[in-house]
Amino acid sequence: MSSPIRMVQLDPDKIQVPEVRITSSWDDEEYKTFQASIAADGISTPLLAIKEGETFWLVDGLHRLQEAKLRGMKRISVAYREGSLVDAMTKNLYMNRLRGKTKASEEARLITYLMQEKKLSFWDIRQKTGLSQEKLEQLLSIGKADPLILKALDEEEIRLGHAYHLSRLPNPAAQLKLLTALRGMIPFPTVDYVKEVVEASLQIIADRSKGQEPPKPSLAIPTLRCHFCDQEFPVAKMVGVTLDRTCAGLAEDYIKELKRKRGAEKTEQEALAGRILNTESQSDHPS
Fold this sequence. Notes:
Blueprint: E1 6-10, E2 15-16, H1 28-41, E3 47-52, E4 55-60, H2 62-70, E5 76-82, H3 85-99, H4 104-116, H5 122-129, H6 133-142, H7 147-154, H8 160-167, H9 172-183, H10 191-211, E6 223-225, E7 232-234, H11 245-264, H12 268-276
Parallel strand pairs: 2-4, 3-5
Antiparallel strand pairs: 1-5, 3-4, 6-7
Helix pairs in contact: 4-6, 6-8, 7-8, 8-10, 10-12
């Protein structure tokens, strides 16, 4: 059973803000309206906190707390319950989600922190935050994504579903390569499209693992690009032929048609999956 709510007047400097938390996002107009309200009527709504020993951990009201400090207020109303820092963090997530103004990247970071640093179980987080199993699994996966994926999510360039499927790619370089490819498509691809590309990519990775491809030689082998198929081959495998212009044109047309037919055997998503995974010898982050 939760401890009862109590009220206290506190010095704003005595209220501690958890290092990892969710903060409601406001646009400039909303924030100016908020500041005007504080200037006219003061802070009428108490802050919400959790008291752990002698420490008051902020749960809700960061903007009010910041305004109180800026205005030099010596006392501010705080409603609090006894609890722990973990209680403050999970309550913070729960309350902000009810408002619908949270950043998914902040949710992902907070949940990852609770699981890795505070050793909360998956079930504990579900109980304390009210998140569904599917949403919690998505956020945990997104928490491991490349920071640029989280940035794109924060800026609403991509949706939560896009970020989740991008995060499923184990190589950050592949995540960013796919994100770059998506940015060049008009209209922007659906979540289902990205899911299909990622599923095809994961299948390619699994197939490569089963095939146990031999290690690449440490010394570079000189290659040349074929004029017709655009593929690289060792110099020793290249041949020279003498053709008149008509025959050369016919041969080129034949090769192009053959390439088109071969390419048609793959879906667009499968072809894109093959391109984004062409990073095996690269580092995780492109230079």
